[in-house]
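Chain X:
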Amino acid sequence: MPIAKARAMTKGQRAGAVKRKQAKANTGPTPSRAATFAPKKRKKKNMGGSAGENSMVKQAQRNYTGSYISGDLGGVQVSNPSYKKYYKGLV
């Protein structure tokens, strides 16, 4: 790795880079390349539990564009605001 890049890295980053590069099998006529920096870990989205489920229900209630003027879908109260406005005198 270039000395300028190594100087800009922390001690732990340098150690990890050297370990990754040494662990890469270098067989054959062309050199195998290993990343200098480890790939960043992605955060997992909350797919379960009450907090994620509750926010999904609230978003569905806000963005509902179905044919119900006002009703209950699977225990979730939904209403279409434009239909409500249009049929306000009849319902």
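Chain Y:
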Amino acid sequence: MGWKLIYYQSRSGRDYVNEFMSSELLDETRNKVRNLLELLAQHGPMLQRPHAKKIFGQLWELRVTGTVAVRIFYYINHNQIVLLHAIKKNRNKLPLKDIATARQRLSSYLNDI
């Protein structure tokens, strides 16, 4: 089963994940992210550690490792995966403000569908 990747957009049309990828990442890391997104689109919720991890509830993280660690927060709904927020990870724990941002975008997305 294929999963459709949806890039969350704010009501004003901002696509935060693509903005992050194009402005914050070098080509090598961006390619790693794209490869892992393809794996996610192929396997959906069956993609597990070390590539994906459930944070809690309906919120998951895609885990890109390497010289630069990247996390993409996402939500799975039927055959769709909604990419909500992306960060460079600098610490062992995920920053609470970024989890809050992902949760807010998830709430906004759910209210709009």
